[in-house]
Amino acid sequence: MTENNSVKYKISKKMPVFGTMASVNMNKDELTKLIESNNYDFVLIDGQHAPLNEDSISNFCYIANELNIHVQFRIKHTNLAFLSGNYIDLGPSGVEIPQIELESTVIETINNFYYPPKGIRSWGGQDRVGLSQKPSRLEYSHWWENYGTLWLQLESVDAVKNCRKFAKPGVDCLSFGPADLSFSLENTSNHNFKSIEDCVAFTSNELSSTNTAVCFRNDLGSRQLYLDMGVTVLLETPKGKWAR
């Protein structure tokens, strides 16, 4: 769990990082087997389209943190971005905010994700990842700034067009929601994107000079296609099993 081999470090250096979806109902053996199946760097649990409660998130993260597995948590709704710090207090190593549309939401999320002086996140929570190793307030807050991962999800044509504005310091990754973005592509006029892949390539180019990486939810076996587009974070989702 050191900073120089963390998921955040790899993302910041735009090294390839691979993850997969997980169920909060997995036990330790099941989670271990899942990670080892493709040597994954992280798992993502979904609070947007799955029936989760805070106890189940905390219990799952306790198991994952014992195994030193990075947990990314997609929150329920964009309008709950101000609760990013509260979700992190339950034990995840990062959050993903769905359906980002406004720069003000990005700023609000950053403020609540990081402790002062970078943000305004409140101190507290005994279930936080890494707390037992770094119980000092100042030591932990510095460690978190260099460990926790903040993702924002692009799911509309306008969000893709504005991706560079969203790639602010502290935002580790802009991820894609292919299904909702497809709706937007089909129902939005005045754009030049012919496909999801066009959107991904555009975003990768826009972020090439930033420290913010691009994540795509890919099916098993399609890694190279997106790596060649400049995507460095891949979330593998077997067909038919998980909502996107």
How would you describe the overall organization of this protein?
The protein has 244 residues and is an alpha/beta fold. It has one domain: Alpha-Beta Barrel (TIM Barrel). The protein is 36% helix and 16% strand. It is built from eleven helices and eight strands. The protein has helices spanning 7-12, 28-37, 54-66, 84-88, 103-113, 137-145, 157-161, 163-166, 178-187, 196-206, 223-227, and strands at residues 17-21, 42-46, 70-74, 94-97, 149-154, 173-176, 213-218, 233-236. It has an eight-stranded parallel β-barrel with strand order 1-2-3-4-5-6-7-8. It is globular, with a radius of gyration of 17 Å.
Name a few traits of the molecule.
244 residues; alpha/beta; TIM Barrel
Q: What's a concise summary of this model?
A:
The protein is of the alpha/beta class and about 240 residues long. The protein has helices at about 5-10, 30-35, 55-65, 85-90, 105-115, 135-145, 155-160, 165, 180-185, 195-205, 225, and strands at about 15-20, 40-45, 70-75, 95, 150-155, 175, 215-220, 235.
Low-confidence stretches: 240-244
Overall strand count: 8
Strand line-up of the largest beta sheet = 1-2-3-4-5-6-7-8
Q: What CATH architecture do you see?
A: Alpha-Beta Barrel
User: What is the CATH class?
Assistant: Alpha Beta
The count of helical stretches stands at 11
Rg, rounded, reads: 17 Å
| Mean pLDDT over the full residue set | 93
Classification by helices and strands? alpha/beta
Percent strand equals 15-25%
| Tally of individual domains | 1
CATH topology: TIM Barrel
How is the secondary structure organized here?
Elements: H1 7-12, E1 17-21, H2 28-37, E2 42-46, H3 54-66, E3 70-74, H4 84-88, E4 94-97, H5 103-113, H6 137-145, E5 149-154, H7 157-161, H8 163-166, E6 173-176, H9 178-187, H10 196-206, E7 213-218, H11 223-227, E8 233-236
Parallel strand pairs: 1-2, 1-8, 2-3, 3-4, 4-5, 5-6, 6-7, 7-8
